[in-house]
Prior knowledge:
The protein is mainly beta and about 350 residues long. About 5% of the residues lie in helices and about 50% in strands. Bound molecules: 2-acetamido-2-deoxy-beta-D-glucopyranose (NAG) (6 copies).
Amino acid sequence: MSLKILCLLFSVTFAKAAGQTGCTITEYKQVDDVLKRCTNITISNLTMPGGIQLKLDLQKGSTLTFEGTTVFEVAHWEGHLVEVTGEGVLVQGAPGSILNAQGEKYWDGQGGNGGLTKPKFFKIGTTGGSVFRHIYLLNCAHFCVGITASDVHVHHFTIDVVAGNLRGGLNTDGFGVSNSHNVLIEDSVVMNQDDCVVVNRGTNMVFRNLQCYGTHGLSFSVGDSHKDAVNGVTKNITFEDCHVADGLYGIHFKTKRGTGLVTDVTYKNIKLSGIQEDGIYINQDYGDIGNTSRSLQIANLSINNVYGSMNGALARPVHVVCNENACSNWNWSGISIEGTGKNYCNFSPNGFNC
Ligand SMILES: *[C@@H]1O[C@H](CO)[C@@H](O)[C@H](O)[C@H]1NC(C)=O
Ligand SMILES: *[C@@H]1O[C@H](CO)[C@@H](O)[C@H](O)[C@H]1NC(C)=O
Ligand SMILES: *[C@@H]1O[C@H](CO)[C@@H](O)[C@H](O)[C@H]1NC(C)=O
Ligand SMILES: *[C@@H]1O[C@H](CO)[C@@H](O)[C@H](O)[C@H]1NC(C)=O
Ligand SMILES: *[C@@H]1O[C@H](CO)[C@@H](O)[C@H](O)[C@H]1NC(C)=O
Ligand SMILES: *[C@@H]1O[C@H](CO)[C@@H](O)[C@H](O)[C@H]1NC(C)=O
């Protein structure tokens, strides 16, 4: 190879990696062109027009950085406002950056069940060792982060819907994970009005060092509310070293209609403070209280070292409602949740005296 060609190759490679020009997006109309040309992209102080998705289908191995404020103008549609796809990508927020969904302009106390149509916020649909880090999401109108991905690492997120507490925020789920495999979410903060994390379906997930404020807890929501369907197997899910404060539940299993299995689930080192309803709530009759004929199974559920406090005289540390023959092989240890509400269990985990 001649030196000239080598130099050319080098400069092309170099330009592709770092010195790309025109790879900053400040207006929506630039998105398509920049995504086509660039693998190192900055989105800077972008205002997205309402009703249009910021669709970021990134080239393999790309880096995308949000800087300044990305704001999404109001429109009554389902979202997601942002959707990221690609393989082996890095998506990050620069220091001080914020993505603002302007939820305060939608909240009406009805969440996803009525009233105004509210867009879901941030969808992760990546594969192949992608990383999302240092992202600050402000005022989700509806669900905050939706993940349907494989091999993804999410860390240092702040999900800040604290303003929704007094202004009718509802169904502002923090991280919702469905049909995903090999997911690690850690070192993040969620302040909202629904689940901190909710696992719907998938395998091999770890949720670690999460701080949840005002939430509905570290949850599973499995099956279908309306019909009997085969839900498949959700397996090998761990929550560890988390703090859940001030919300309705600490740990919550919601199983609905249909068949399927949730197994090999571990919760360990979970601190609760000021929880208002149930510290640990296994709720196999979710959405149809008293119907214990549903068959979705919860097996191999290990809970250890869950401690802390409840808030209110009726707040119940432990509440277990299992369906007939639908719970098995639960080993619990080190459950010490202070509260005056009376525990209820219709199934007895090994190692725990209800
Ligand atoms: C992307 O561009 C930024 C700013 O120009 C630079 O600091 C960074 O190193 C680049 N990243 C990659 C992976 O090339
Ligand atoms: C974004 O806008 C703010 C306010 O106008 C400005 O202070 C800041 O420098 C901008 N950030 C970038 C990265 O251009
Ligand atoms: C469970 O998931 C973790 C995290 O993804 C993984 O490291 C581990 O190998 C999985 N265990 C099994 C038995 O698949
Ligand atoms: C209870 O759940 C079963 C299984 O999903 C369903 O077939 C049945 O209709 C439900 N019963 C009532 C009273 O809703
Ligand atoms: C529960 O403990 C029993 C007895 O020690 C053990 O055989 C079983 O594998 C444990 N199950 C889980 C899910 O850890
Ligand atoms: C529960 O765990 C044991 C090993 O501890 C395993 O043999 C069994 O298959 C698991 N049960 C289910 C339903 O996954």
